[in-house]
Input
Amino acid sequence: MSHVTISDHNTIDGALAIAHLPGTFISEEITTYFPESGCKVHVLALNINESQHWDIQKVRSSIFDLAIYLKEQNILSVVAHPLYAVNDKLTLDDFEKMLLLFENFELNGARNARENETLRKLMGQLHEKDIADLAEKHSIEPLYPISRQKRLWGGSDDHSALNIARTYTRIKNVNHPQLLRGDGPIDDIEAICRPATPLTMAHNLYGIAYQYYCSKFGLGRYRDKDELMRFLDRNLRVDYNRHPGLFSRLYLFWNYHKEKKVKEPVSDSLMSLLRHETSKLIHDDPRFFEETQRPVDDDHQEKRWYAFVNRTSKRVMVHFGDNLMGHLSGANFFNIFSTIGSAGGLYTLMAPYFVAYAQFAKDR
Output
């Protein structure tokens, strides 16, 4: 891969942060709306400058004004995940209007295979007469020549750095970012797409949360001192060039043998149980932990994380169940409420999977 950009939502700060590196260019993902319905749409603007970014903020409240501005400025624009209803207001009419306003559409690395394949088939069957009929139906003049075939681009839509370039675009005969213009010589283009699953989305959500709290509370200082933190860091953050120092290795080695002797968790708190069960899992299946120390290029990473969450949550729930029965038999009512509360906390920690499966089910 020779060229890279960061397209954050309505900001170019991320792109500017890497702009000094070779093969990079400034882009952003614009949030815009159909003014009559409030339907939210995301549009990628590639290879822009800072002045254009600020102009975009002034016109993005209307997708019609935005599309005209991007065309006038000769900015290469791509409709991101066009079949995904961002705020549940997308209709067939809205999609048809997008076909009249734009000529580039994205196969999205965070969406499922069915959605991407549907878009690919739609674009493959779209003809000049279809665009002309839509223009008459909606009384909208197409912004681009109706004789030109709609183009499909690949975008990773990665928010956690765990799936960078999962989906990307391969363009032949374009060896410089400045050629990425609305009228640029972009004819031979291919979207390389590896679709996502609910496991992908959930893994991303865990990664975003972990990276945020590490940054917010400085949790990184514990990653070489705590077995659970080290495990989380290897699964939810990308930094394969980082290795613990000698003292960190000695500390982990000492903790490993100390915790190996502990048969039961020190308390019934959720964090204590998670740390205890993670430690047991690592000790019982060291190969599972060793695999997390190597980078992977396929879906194994998200499946491995799912296996960890699944196995750990089962162990913790069994512990909660045993404790609950013990408290019931001993009529320890206050401890009963404490155990139920901790179990509720566990389900909160599993929420990314509930959210992910609900989102993917909605798209069907």
In short: The first strand starts at residue 4 and ends at 6. Residues 199-362 form one domain. Residues 300-329 form the longest helix (30 residues). The two ends are 32 Å apart (CA to CA).
